[in-house]
Structures are given as structure tokens and as C-alpha cells.
Amino acid sequence: MEVDERIQPGQVTEVVFWKRSIALFRGWDGRVRAIENRCAHRQLKLSLGGVDDCQLVCLYHGWTYDGDGRVVRIPHDLFGRRMPEFRIASFPVRVRYGLVWLFPGDSALAAERPIPEIPEIEGPDRWACRPLSFTWRAHHSMIIDNVSDFTHAHLHRKYRPFDDARLVRCETAGDSVHVAYDTRVGRGRISGLFVDRDRINTNHMRLCYQYPYQWSNTDDKIKHWLFVLPIDERTTRTFFLFYFESLKIPWTAVRIPRAAMDFVLRLANRLLIAPLLDQDRGAVEAEQEGYEVHWDEPIAEINPAVRAFQEVTIRKWQAHLDRLVPQAGARTTPAMQRTP
After folding, report:
1. Phi/psi of residue 212, each to 5°?
2. pTM value?
3. 2.102.10.10, 1.10.8.80, 3.40.50.2030, 3.40.50.2300: which CATH number matches 2-104?
4. Tens digits of per-residue pLDDT, 278-295?
5. Is the dihedral of CA 100, 219, 192, 215 positive or negative?
6. What are the start-end ranges of the H helices in the chain?
7. CA distance 214 to 26
8. DSSP 3-state assignment of 122?
């Protein structure tokens, strides 16, 4: 994944999914393409090169690749040979919700793994939404735990996104964990001025770990999604989508016009949401460091929702291992083992 606006026509960037490097590039036709980030010749990262029209050119010898990963041009002497048929892997790509989505597995299975439907941020009446992306030095399961566990209000005393949370639902259904809290949402000194409590019930929030994604919903008026891109065992790209049906002008009952919401959300992302998430980042990275030192110590976790999240993650990872080596029967043993 990547934020769409970060890849302009003629640009290439590297994204990493579980240690596999992928080159994302946008041709001058505006279309984004994704191919394996290595030149078949000398294995240089193609993201070090450049975009020529709708093709990607290696920095070193100028070997040129199309969006399907085929070498379509070798600009130097072929030593009497015909043009060789070299090819590297390519990946299906879609742009939606301001994000670039790619499917890193078997392309034939891409249609079976649909992008989540978020109708509120599509179409002519869409709600304002500005993606936020960060790199956190932590395993992705710790991040899911963090954004779904509302018992850490102490960390956010300055911003008060939620207070006095009480877990009222925790239910696993297939690959999803549904959670609900009775809480007080948006009680910060500044954020509280924009929330219209006459129209929105801010005393209850629903959340779901819809593997591998996470979302929350406050009275169908305040929502968010989190998408994670595991880079390795201790590094994760996070992509947050926060969107609001409307906010109000402070000290009034007047709703902010839909046309102005994009500007307001840009400010909110920079001044409130990003600093708030940075508090989470610091805590989760410290948790990762602590786990690496004390991995063999028992975990004193009392929130049943966190346990449920971890059980789904471990089960999905074990299923992946079983598909890779069905005859080995390798098992994941520690209950808290951090695995992709």
C-alpha cells in the first residue's frame, strides 16, 4: 500500500511487504503499476531508477521494464543475441480511498480478496477523508491491540479521545473480533468543540478487528479504518482513514459546510490526530522493545478483547504456515508469540 498522492506521474517508490521489496511507479498516463523491485540483470532495486513514459528503467544499465515485469528494452550491445525474454513478478494494483492497493500474492486470487467497502468516502456526497500514514517500529499485531484497546486513556490525557471506557461486547465470528465500549468520545479541550453531541451519541463506540483490517464506528457519524502493511517482524506501515459525516462550528450548533470539511480535516490531521497517534506510536514501540527483552515472561493481560485479537492473528498465521509446509505440522507455541 501507499498513499496515492505520494506517487505523482513519472515517480517511483519502494514499498515492502514482509521483507519483499516492490517498486510502485506511476506512468505519464496516470496509471500506477507494481513490479518486483529488482533488475533481472544485476539485482539492483528498480526504485533507484526512473520512469520513462509508462515503463521503469534500471539505474545501472538502462534495462527497461513494462508494468507486467517484462524487459522490453536493453539499450546496450546484445553481443549478437536476439532480444532475451526476461521477466520479473508483477502485482495487481488498484487506487481507492486515496490509497494505492496491491495484491502481493498469486494474482489469480486477487479477486477473492476484495478491498473493504467504505461507501461514505466515495461518490458525489462522500465524506471528507485524508489518509494518514506512518512507519511504526513494532509488530503489526501490537498496533491492532493498541487501536482497539480503550483501557489506555491514561496515555492520552492531553487529547482525551475517549474516557472511562467499559467493555460491553467482545465476540469472535470467523476472522473478525467485534468489540464495543461504553465510553465518552471526543472530550478533548479542542476536539470537543467540534463534536455535535446534540446529533451524535458519543457515549458508545463499536470496533472490529476484521482481519487483517480494523475499524471503529461512533453512532454512524464518526468512523475510521486502519490498514497495516507489515514490513518485517518489528516494523509496520500504518494507514489511517478518519472520516466524519459532519462537525460543527465551535460554540454554535451550525454544521461546518461539506465543502469546507476537507480543509478542516487537513488541519485536524496535522494538529490533533497525528500528535495523538504519535503518542500511540511511542507506547507501542516501547512495548516492542520490552517484548524483545522479556519475551519469555508471562503476559499480565486482563482485557479479553486483546486476547481475542491475538488468537485470530495467531490462527491466521498458523494457517499460512500449514499451507506452506502441510507435512511438517509445525505449531506456534507461545500464546503471545508475535508473528505476521
Report:
1. -100, 20
2. 0.90
3. 2.102.10.10
4. 999 999 999 999 999 998
5. negative
6. 140-148, 191-194, 258-268, 274-293, 304-324
7. 28
8. coil
